[in-house]
Amino acid sequence: MDRKQVAKATTKVISSYLTYQAVQTVLAQLMETNPTLARWLHSFSSRSIVQDGEVYLLALLAEHQELAFRIMTVREHLVEEIMDDLPEMVSHDIKHKNTQHRKQQLEKLTQLSVSDPTSSHLESSSE
After folding, report:
1. In the 8-state DSSP scheme, what is residue 48?
2. 68: closest CA among 45, 39, 34, 35?
3. 99 with 72, same domain?
4. DSSP-based three-state secondary structure for 34
5. Owning domain of residue 23
6. Per the confidence metrics, is the pTM higher than 0.70?
7. What confidence tens digit (pLDDT) does each residue in 12-70 have?
8. Helix-strand-coil percent breakdown of the chain, rounded to 5?
């Protein structure tokens, strides 16, 4: 496992997700202040690749620089708001979910071996 490569890929995913959240925020703002521009941005976003935030922003810069700058500003603000809490939250969430998955799997395994009547019947007939 190349830790640096994993960190880079994770950063790209988080950056793209924050771009998506910034677009959603700007869309909500525009729906109240400029519905026509909101519809344009919604249409643009539906035909552009939002999964890759950087590709999306480059395409938006080519078509509507002001909106692209606004989305970049909101994205930057979002990352500043969440960055302090993010590492601890991600770590806690993964540990919690792993524990839940293990617990559910253990419950499945113990229910199967306790409630499987064919296995106890086979054991008693082989004695």
Report:
1. S
2. 45
3. no
4. coil
5. 1-83
6. yes
7. 999 999 999 999 999 999 999 999 999 999 999 998 788 899 999 999 999 999 999 99
8. 90, 0, 10
Buried b (16+ CB within 10 A) or exposed e, 1-14: eeeeeeeeeeeeeb
Q: Which two tokens stand for residue 87?
A: 């590492």
What is the distance between the alpha carbons of residues 44 and 61, in angstroms, rounded to a whole number? Answer: 12
Shared-domain flag, residues 32 and 18: yes
The reply to whether 15 and 63 lie within a common domain is yes
Q: Is the domain of 12 the same as that of 70?
A: yes
Handedness of CA 105, 110, 115, 121 (dihedral sign): positive
Residue 108 lies in a domain: yes
Structural tokens at position 90: 């991600």
